[in-house]
């Protein structure tokens, strides 16, 4: 997994490891910027069916673009999501359409339009559900 940035480069307090640690106390906090992103490389191919994400209200994204690919291929756009500016866990976004046969080795989630004036994004939880192949 990789992220676009970390607030003040404070990886210990705001790093990418906090996206998946299951703690309500920790989060990934991006630095300022117009477009933030998270890239996930899976150890083996997966079919993604749902995305679970929990932002901090006021630091969410109005538009999330999902791109994916197989190893050695270029990223292609899969879907656009329109999350709420809320601290609640958001599961199965209403407009999320995953192509039934989309098999991925890499998934990139781009947070294109932050609700924060400076472009920061804060994510407490990120979960990708699907099937390992």
TrEMBL record:
Its cellular-component GO annotations read:
nucleus
For the F5/8 type C domain, which residue ranges apply? 1-54
Give the protein's recorded name.
Nuclear receptor 2C2-associated protein
Residues in coiled coil:
none
Q: Where in the cell is it found?
A: Nucleus
Q: Could you tell me which InterPro entries the record lists for this protein?
A: FA58C (IPR000421), Galactose-bd-like_sf (IPR008979)
The protein's predominant localisation is nucleus
- Keywords annotated in UniProt: Nucleus
| Gene this chain is encoded by | Nr2c2ap
Give the family, as the similarity comment puts it: Belongs to the NR2C2AP family.
Q: Which PROSITE patterns match?
A: FA58C_3
Q: Which organism is it from?
A: Vidua macroura (Pin-tailed whydah)
């Amino acid at each position: 997994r990789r992220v676009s940035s970390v607030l003040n480069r404070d990886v210990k307090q705001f790093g990418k490891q906090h996206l998946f640690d299951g703690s309500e106390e920790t989060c990934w906090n991006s630095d300022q910027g117009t477009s933030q992103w998270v890239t996930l490389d899976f150890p083996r191919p997966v079919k993604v069916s749902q995305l679970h994400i929990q932002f901090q209200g006021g630091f969410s994204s109005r538009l999330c673009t999902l791109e994916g690919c197989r190893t050695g291929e270029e990223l292609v756009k899969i879907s656009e999501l329109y999350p709420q500016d809320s601290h609640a866990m958001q599961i199965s976004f209403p407009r999320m359409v995953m192509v039934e046969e989309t098999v991925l080795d890499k998934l990139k989630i781009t947070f294109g339009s932050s609700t924060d004036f400076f472009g920061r994004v804060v994510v407490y939880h990120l979960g990708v559900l699907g099937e390992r192949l």
